[in-house]
Write a structure and sequence with these properties.
Number of domains: 1
CATH architecture: Roll
Number of strands: 12
Structural class: alpha+beta
Shape: globular
CATH class: Alpha Beta
Order of helices and strands: EEEEEHHEHHEHEEEHEEH
Distance between the termini: 15 Å
Oligomer: single chain
Strand order of the largest sheet: 1-12-11-8-9-10
Radius of gyration: 17 Å
Number of helices: 7
Helix content: 25-40%
Largest sheet: 6 strands, antiparallel
Length: about 240
């Protein structure tokens, strides 16, 4: 299994409440505790369904069409959403937008665009068993930083990594295990993953979700080319 990660998740995490990712409008000091699964629960939203119409997905369900569907959605999010930090967009260190908000604003950070990408994948008819938002860390020579990304299990049963902060999706899906290898200059290290039903830890993790949150609060922002190189070409895969 490459780096040995179970991208579907290992152990269900019972405490799914994020206590500092949403605040009352006009009163940023008044926080709204929110279940993390709520960020993936708007698949029936008219805004989300409208975006799927805009993308133009394959109608047929022939072999290969689900992977094509996933790739088109990934490319749409990458092209549509401008990367911007929470500090730049709303003046807060780490504020999570809901998918509809990211879609309307057309900007957000890695969590925002990852939640949007996963929601669109699920809303398109792709099974929740095949989609995860991953919360973890990227290790590099420049330093380690908290990061979020999406993995999709393709029609061959291989989990593929989808980096939502690119300017455009590369021409094909690549196995997530390749990005988790120690030889990769930007090594993806999953710690938690979720869909609309569950939050899981990914072994070996040895940390709580709150540890990921603290790591994101002191994050070092990556460049948008950190996964696929300066011309969106994959590196070390």
């Amino acid at each position: 299994m490459g780096a040995g990660y179970n991208w579907a998740g290992d152990v269900i995490v019972r405490d799914t409440i994020m206590r500092d990712k949403r605040a009352v409008l006009g009163n940023p000091g008044l926080l709204i505790p929110t279940d993390i699964r709520e960020w993936l629960s708007s698949t029936d939203s008219g805004v989300i369904q409208g975006a799927l119409q805009e993308i133009g997905l394959p109608v047929a369900r022939d072999p290969g069409t689900f992977d094509l569907r996933a790739w088109r959605i990934w490319d749409y999010v990458a092209r549509c959403v401008q990367y911007i930090t929470d500090k730049q967009s709303c003046g807060l260190e780490d504020f999570w937008l809901f998918p509809e908000e990211t879609l309307v604003l057309r900007k957000g950070d890695c969590e925002d665009s990852s939640f949007l990408l996963a929601t669109l994948l699920l809303a398109s008819g792709i099974s929740e068993h095949c989609v995860r938002v991953v919360l973890g860390r990227v290790a590099s020579a420049e330093g380690d930083y908290g990061h979020a990304w999406v993995v999709y299990q393709n029609e061959e049963g291989i989990w593929c990594l989808m980096e939502s902060t690119l300017d455009a999706a590369p021409s094909r899906l690549a196995p997530a295990d390749l990005f988790a290898q120690a030889s990769n200059p930007y090594q993806y290290q999953p710690q938690f993953c979720l869909n609309a039903a569950h939050l899981w830890s990914v072994e070996p993790v040895g940390m709580q979700v709150s540890d990921y949150v603290r790591m994101r609060a002191r994050k070092v922002e990556p460049t948008k080319a950190h996964v696929f190189g300066p011309n969106k070409k994959r590196i070390s895969v």
